[in-house]
TrEMBL record:
Enzyme class, UniProt record, top EC level: hydrolase
Protein name: 3'(2'),5'-bisphosphate nucleotidase CysQ
Coiled-coil stretches: none
Residues annotated as signal peptide: none
CDD domains referenced in this protein's UniProt entry, alphabetically: CysQ
Organism: Sphingomonas oryzagri
Length: 242
């Protein structure tokens, strides 16, 4: 099994586990979210270590021993991106599985289990924009800079849960961009960015700098994923908003 086949199989199966757990109705609220995080993480970590024992690993739900820093190939996973949305019974949550090679997100799979959708970096494509243009932002922490940027462009912000769900919504043609400011971690964006770049979207820091993964600190301050025809307009508006 090659890397993208492995990433896709892992994301898909973890998503099925999460759906089964939620459908069981044995847990709810915070307890359901915590169980989802732990269940998906246990499976993904064990499977990656079994299938790719020589690669590094960074997961939101596991302690980082930093042994990954000496590796060229590092799997970066978010077992349940959008824990709040998952626990609330919503569909805008995802499973992220990425492989970064020398800091570049080279392979990615994002499962949206509640939408019966699995995205892969080797097959994803960019759909035509449909509906009114807008910029996707965090449901819980919409950044003020996004509000100001959209005001300059006279387009709305659109709140949504998981970073993976927002990035895939840009690919589906539901928005012109996904903008985040205020901090994330590598696992929030590695798999979505791998898919976005492979499908022809632009994905950078807000200032246009490239996104680099497997750094000593997993914190990433900001992110812009955009349709290429909108990138210049968005960056100009960002500069004015700043």
């Amino acid at each position: 099994m090659n890397d993208i086949e492995l990433a896709a199989a892992l994301a898909d199966f973890a998503g099925r586990l999460l759906l089964d757990l939620r459908r069981s109705n044995l847990l709810e609220g915070k307890a359901l979210g915590e169980a989802g995080d732990q269940t998906a993480n246990a499976f993904l970590v064990r499977a990656i270590r079994h299938q790719r024992p020589d690669d590094g690993l960074l997961s939101e739900e596991s302690a980082d021993d930093r042994s990954r820093l000496g590796k060229s190939r590092v799997w970066i996973i978010d077992p349940l991106d959008g824990t709040r949305e998952y626990a609330e019974g919503r569909d805008d949550w995802a499973v992220h599985v990425a492989l970064a090679i020398d800091g570049v997100p080279s392979v990615g799979a994002v499962a949206e289990p509640a939408r019966s959708t699995l995205w892969r970096s080797d097959t994803a494509s960019l759909a035509a924009l449909h509906g009114a243009p807008g910029v996707l932002v965090s449901r819980s922490r919409p950044p003020e800079v996004a509000t100001r940027t959209c005001r300059h462009l006279d387009i709305p912000t659109k709140p949504m849960g998981s970073a993976g769900a927002k990035t895939m919504a840009v690919l589906r043609g539901e928005a012109v961009a996904y903008l985040h400011d205020g901090g994330q971690h590598e696992w929030d964006s590695a798999a979505p960015v791998a898919i976005a770049l492979a499908a022809g979207l632009d994905a950078t820091r807000l200032d246009g700098q490239p996104l680099v993964y497997n750094r000593p600190e997993s914190y990433m301050p900001d992110l812009l994923v955009s349709r290429p025809e909108w990138t210049t307009r968005l960056r100009d508006a960002l500069a004015r908003a700043a």
